[in-house]
Every structure is written in C-alpha cells, then in structure tokens.
C-alpha cells in the first residue's frame, strides 16, 4: 500500500467508524435499519411498489449476499461430491452438521480444524464464495462453488498446495456485494489498517436504497399524502445527466480503484470521481480489459456508446428484472437503434434477417474467458476461467463462424 492509499484509507475508515458508532446509539434506542433512521429498508417499499419489488426479488443484485444456510449454499454436501484435495496431502471436506455448515481440514484422516460457513457472496449465477467470521474478522474460505461445472473449486487466487484459511476480507468486498455492514472498530496496525466487523450484521443483498439513496422521508411523506402522485423526497433518475446515470452502475461495475470515500456513501447523482482517485496508469486497449467487473470501461469504449447520445446501461438492462439468458428480448433492445428500415441493421451478408434478429448477442457480445477469475476444481491440473459477456460491442469473426455453423 502506498502512502496516498494509506492516508486515504485511514480517512475513509475513521469516518465509517464514527458513522458506525452513530448506528450503535440509534439501534439501542429502537430497532431501526443499521444504516440509520434515514433508511426505510426494502420491505417498506412493497406497499406502494409491489410490482417492482416482486420482480426485483429474483435478480442477482438482490441475492448477491445471504446468511449461509443449506438453502443459500448451492454446492453439494453429499459424499463423493464434497471433497477437495491439495497437493500437500491435506484435503477439505464440506460437512453439514447440526451446528451448521463447515469446511473441515484433514491431514490423512486426522481432523485439523472446522471453519464455519457464515456468509454467502454471489447469488449462484456463476460462482459463490464463502466468508467465515472469527474475532471481528471475516475470512474467505478456501473452497468456492463454481456453478458451470456444478463443483467445489479452490477460490480464485488461492494456492493449490494447501488449504488457505487466513485470507482476511476487507470492507470493500461488502461495498459491492451488500447494502450495509456493521463495523465495530478500525485500528491501525503499523502501516496496515485493520477493520473489525460485528458478527453477521449485514443488510444482505443490494437493496433498493443502495441505488436510490435513503428513502425514509419518501415513505413517510407518501404514507401521509396518499393522493400525491409525484415522487417526493427521492432522486428522480430521469432528471439525472447521462454520466450520472452511468456512474450509478460504474460504482461497482468498473473494478476497484483507489477509494476516496466508502462506496456505501454513494447517492444517485454523485460523481464516481468523488469515490475513486483517477487512474493515471497507461490507458489499456479495450480489447485487453478483463471482462470481469469492467462492464463500464468496455461498454463506453464501444461504437454504440461513442456514436450515440444518452446511451447508458438502462438502454439494455431493466434494473428491476432478472432478464438473464433472454437473448431475443435483449436483441430487441439493439433493434431500438439498429432497424432494418434505417440501414443501420446488421451488415452481415447472406444471413437470414429473422435468424439474426433472434440473437445479436452471441455474435457481437460473445461470452469470453476472464483472465483474472479462474477456478481450480478437484483433480484438475489447471484452473478453468470464469466466462462472461464482453461489453465491447463490435464484430467478432471467430464467434460469427461458430454461430453461422449452427444456423446451417
Ligand atoms: C406510501 C407509498 C410509497 C411508499 C411506501 C414508497 N413509495 Fe416510492 N413512490 C411513491 C409514489 C406515489 C411515487 C410517484 C409515482 C411513481 O413513480 O410510482 C413514487 C416514486 C418512487 C421512485 C421514482 C422516482 C423517479 O425516478 O421518478 C422511486 C425510485 C421510489 N419511489 C423509491 C421508493 C423506495 C426505494 C421505497 C422503499 C424504501 C419507496 N419508494 C416506498 C410512493 C411510495
Ligand atoms: C441496481 C440499481 C437499482 C436498484 C437496486 C433498484 N433500482 Fe429502481 N431504478 C433504477 C434505475 C436505473 C431506474 C431508472 C429507470 C430505468 O432506467 O429503467 C429506476 C427506477 C425506479 C422507479 C421509477 C420507474 C419505474 O421503473 O417504475 C421506481 C418506482 C423504482 N426504481 C423503485 C425501486 C424499488 C422499490 C427498488 C427495490 C425493490 C429498486 N427500485 C431497486 C435502479 C435501481
Ligand atoms: C453496489 C454495487 C452494484 C451496483 C451499484 C450495481 N451493480 Fe450490477 N452487480 C453487482 C454485483 C455484485 C453483481 C453480481 C450479482 C450476483 O451475485 O449474481 C451484479 C450483477 C449485475 C448484472 C447481472 C445480473 C444477472 O442477474 O444476470 C447486471 C445486468 C447488472 N449487475 C447491471 C447493473 C446496472 C445496470 C446497474 C446500474 C443501474 C448496476 N448493475 C449497479 C453490483 C452492483
Ligand atoms: C468493485 C466492486 C466489487 C468488489 C470490491 C468485489 N466484487 Fe465480486 N463481483 C462484482 C461484480 C460487478 C460481479 C458480477 C459481474 C462480473 O463478474 O463481471 C461480481 C461477482 C462476484 C461473484 C460471482 C457471482 C456471480 O455468480 O456472478 C463472487 C462469488 C464474488 N463477486 C465475490 C466477491 C468477494 C468474495 C469479494 C471480496 C473479496 C468481491 N467479490 C469483491 C463486484 C465486486
Ligand atoms: C442507443 C442506440 C443503440 C443501441 C441500443 C445499440 N446500438 Fe449498436 N450502435 C449504435 C450506433 C450509433 C453505432 C455506430 C454506427 C456507426 O456510426 O457506424 C453502433 C454500432 C454498432 C456496431 C458496429 C461496431 C463496430 O465496432 O464497428 C455493432 C456490431 C453494434 N452496434 C451492435 C449492437 C448490438 C448487438 C446491440 C444490442 C446488444 C446494439 N448495437 C445496441 C447505437 C446503438
Ligand atoms: C451470425 C453472427 C451475427 C449475428 C447473429 C448478427 N450479426 Fe451483426 N454483424 C456480424 C458480422 C460478421 C458483421 C460484419 C459484416 C461485414 O462487415 O462484412 C456484422 C455487422 C454488423 C453491424 C455493422 C458494423 C459496421 O461495420 O458498421 C451492425 C450495426 C450489426 N452487425 C448489428 C447487429 C444487430 C443489431 C444484430 C441483431 C439484430 C446482429 N448484428 C446480428 C455478425 C452477426
Ligand atoms: C447494448 C446493450 C447493453 C448495454 C448498453 C449494457 N449491457 Fe450489460 N448485457 C447485455 C447483454 C445482451 C448481456 C447478456 C445477458 C445474458 O447473456 O444473459 C449483458 C450482461 C451483463 C452482465 C452479466 C455478464 C455476465 O456474463 O455475467 C452484467 C454484469 C452487465 N451486463 C452489466 C452492465 C452494465 C453495468 C452496463 C453499463 C455500464 C451494461 N451492462 C450495459 C447488454 C448490454
């Protein structure tokens, strides 16, 4: 950590600490949201926004963190499917006991230690990682669950030689994967910062107020003024500038820069540049940007974005719905701009327009391997990359050849 990062992190964490002490006092008074009284919590939106709430409940965002239970942990605890072996001869077995779920380390048949699954990170769309709480710290458990191969796998970046149980998780992890986390202390250990968390004190998932900002005043006002049809005490997204709308998503979809402020302080309308220091490193070509977590950089490098006004993530994504794998529906959003009539439709010759229209995505946003996120499954020699859609929308001859061969 360089000096700048050090001072900045210190400032951020001390302000989080002071803030968390305020929560503490208010939570003694009454049973409010741990974020404070200005937050109402998602369940209070149901009475007036039931439709939005109901569809939102099935999104990756809403389910991206959860208490670890037999239901939320997607991996198997059945014999034959619950073991991972390390090259030093030890192995880890996933065990479901009366007292909870555990990753248990063995050397030969000798039990070394059992580590509890406390929190699940990841909705189970592609992968899940697990956190275990001990003495104020969260540790990432060595085994993650890798959905495409339905198998446990050594967590990304973890050594293949032995099970690593001492990787401490920083608060930034919760900043992208939860709505709030209870911090009980922030200490300096030499040049290192050390955060202490309250056990399992989280507002799980990315909730409504993570994107829309605190809404308790909005709820109170509309409850007592049921005739008012205009939204009061809440930021109107439609009134924001396009860059502000992009920044709402880029907060978590542009990678983790050097933070200036806690991501939890973000309110719609804020500029991303107030949360991260500008990155002065050599600009990389878009084609070299990792597909994981960098949708903002890739999309804004695409011609669609550069050549149009006011295009943002909502041009294709409905933030309140799970529209995963609905490629025909998503292709219709491409055709809002690329219509056959105005000649900006696909230039691919000799292809049937109806077939093209059913799926623009596989040719122009192919699923690509991440160079950063790779997972090693049991008995494999080399790790498998996690794969996701690139948001660099352009012409991919290789992907086209593959799809065309399917057309025939
Ligand atoms: C007592 C009724 C009521 C409750 C409870 C309520 N709202 Fe609203 N909300 C409204 C009304 C009325 C509008 C204006 C009409 C509309 O857009 O639906 C509105 C509009 C909105 C808008 C649209 C702003 C825009 O861009 O135009 C957002 C965002 C919003 N509410 C968020 C929330 C959140 C988050 C919660 C829960 C924490 C919540 N509301 C709870 C009544 C309510
Ligand atoms: C990932 C960020 C995000 C989350 C989480 C989120 N919203 Fe929204 N919301 C938006 C954006 C962006 C818009 C603007 C509309 C658009 O772009 O389609 C919006 C618009 C709205 C609107 C007004 C327009 C409409 O679609 O009805 C309401 C009301 C609303 N949100 C309520 C909610 C409620 C209630 C929740 C929680 C159940 C929620 N939102 C969760 C990002 C979010
Ligand atoms: C607070 C951090 C955060 C913000 C803000 C955020 N996202 Fe996300 N987003 C995530 C995380 C974390 C995931 C992975 C969720 C999971 O576990 O499946 C995700 C997943 C997604 C997915 C894939 C979901 C699926 O179900 O297939 C889409 C699409 C997406 N985000 C779009 C957006 C858009 C659009 C916005 C802005 C309106 C936005 N996100 C704002 C953190 C965020
Ligand atoms: C800067 C924001 C950010 C931070 C910090 C972050 N993530 Fe994520 N994470 C994301 C986004 C965005 C996605 C989904 C989209 C993608 O992978 O491109 C994701 C995906 C994941 C997934 C896969 C979920 C799925 O099925 O798509 C897991 C598991 C995960 N993150 C765990 C973690 C853990 C554990 C940490 C902390 C050590 C962490 N992440 C830190 C933003 C973040
Ligand atoms: C808001 C309008 C809009 C939407 C929505 C949109 N595009 Fe575009 N796209 C454009 C514009 C404008 C250009 C630039 C055209 C030009 O000037 O050549 C473009 C260019 C392209 C190009 C050429 C890229 C290159 O590098 O040569 C492809 C391919 C493309 N779009 C595919 C798509 C696909 C696939 C989707 C849906 C996933 C989509 N577009 C959605 C506006 C849009
Ligand atoms: C089978 C793969 C495939 C599908 C499906 C497909 N495209 Fe294309 N598209 C291509 C190829 C290859 C080119 C380049 C053709 C050339 O330049 O000879 C292209 C060219 C384009 C261009 C023009 C790029 C330029 O150079 O100006 C646009 C815009 C575009 N496609 C949009 C779409 C849209 C929108 C859809 C869905 C309705 C779609 N494409 C479906 C493969 C595909
Ligand atoms: C031109 C249309 C378009 C725009 C604009 C767009 N996306 Fe996407 N996005 C897609 C499509 C299509 C998919 C693939 C959905 C699928 O395969 O289920 C996708 C998938 C995703 C995923 C899941 C990726 C994966 O494979 O796990 C995330 C996360 C995401 N988008 C975030 C964003 C964010 C953040 C923005 C704005 C910076 C954005 N998208 C802008 C079309 C778009």
UniProtKB/TrEMBL annotation:
<protein>
    <recommendedName>
        <fullName>Cytochrome c-552/4 domain-containing protein</fullName>
    </recommendedName>
</protein>
<feature type="domain" description="Cytochrome c-552/4">
    <location>
        <begin position="172"/>
        <end position="213"/>
    </location>
</feature>
<feature type="signal peptide">
    <location>
        <begin position="1"/>
        <end position="20"/>
    </location>
</feature>
<dbReference type="InterPro" id="IPR036280">
    <property type="entry name" value="Multihaem_cyt_sf"/>
</dbReference>
<keyword id="KW-0732">Signal</keyword>
<dbReference type="Pfam" id="PF13435">
    <property type="entry name" value="Cytochrome_C554"/>
</dbReference>
<dbReference type="InterPro" id="IPR023155">
    <property type="entry name" value="Cyt_c-552/4"/>
</dbReference>
<dbReference type="InterPro" id="IPR051829">
    <property type="entry name" value="Multiheme_Cytochr_ET"/>
</dbReference>
């Amino acid at each position: 950590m360089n000096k700048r990062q050090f001072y900045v992190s210190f400032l951020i964490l001390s302000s989080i600490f002071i803030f968390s002490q305020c929560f503490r006092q208010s939570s003694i008074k009454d049973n409010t949201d741990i974020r404070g009284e200005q937050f109402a919590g998602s369940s209070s939106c149901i009475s007036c926004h039931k439709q939005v709430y109901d569809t939102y409940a099935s999104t990756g965002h809403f389910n991206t963190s959860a208490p670890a239970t037999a239901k939320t942990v997607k991996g198997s605890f059945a014999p034959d499917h619950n073991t991972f072996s390390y090259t030093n001869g030890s192995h880890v077995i996933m065990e479901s006991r009366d007292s909870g779920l555990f990753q248990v380390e063995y050397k030969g048949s000798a039990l070394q230690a059992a580590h509890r699954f406390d929190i699940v990170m990841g909705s189970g769309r592609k992968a899940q990682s697990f956190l275990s709480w001990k003495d104020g710290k969260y540790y990432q458990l060595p085994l993650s669950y890798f959905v495409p191969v339905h198998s446990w796998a050594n967590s990304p970046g973890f050594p293949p030689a032995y099970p690593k149980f001492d990787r401490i998780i920083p608060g930034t992890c919760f900043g992208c994967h939860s709505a709030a986390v209870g911090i009980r202390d922030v200490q300096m250990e030499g040049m290192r910062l050390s955060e202490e968390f309250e056990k399992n004190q989280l507002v799980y998932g990315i909730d409504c107020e993570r994107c829309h900002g605190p809404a308790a005043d909005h709820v109170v006002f509309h409850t007592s003024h049921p005739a008012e049809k205009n939204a009061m005490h809440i930021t109107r997204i439609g009134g924001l500038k396009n860059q502000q709308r992009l920044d709402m998503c880029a907060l978590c979809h542009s990678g983790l820069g050097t933070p200036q402020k806690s991501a939890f302080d973000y309110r719609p309308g804020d500029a991303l540049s107030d949360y991260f220091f500008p990155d002065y490193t050599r600009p990389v070509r878009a084609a070299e940007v990792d597909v994981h977590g960098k949708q903002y950089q890739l999309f804004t490098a695409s011609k669609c974005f550069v050549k149009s006004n006011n295009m943002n993530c909502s041009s294709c994504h409905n933030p309140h719905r799970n529209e995963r794998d609905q490629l025909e529906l998503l292709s219709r959003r491409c055709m809002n701009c690329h219509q056959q009539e105005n000649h900006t439709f696909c230039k691919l010759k000799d292809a049937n327009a109806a077939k093209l229209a059913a799926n623009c995505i596989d040719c122009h946003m192919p699923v690509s391997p991440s160079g950063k996120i790779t997972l090693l499954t049991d008995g494999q020699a080399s790790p498998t990359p996690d794969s996701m859609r690139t948001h660099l929308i352009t012409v991919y001859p290789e992907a086209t050849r593959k799809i065309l061969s399917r057309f025939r």
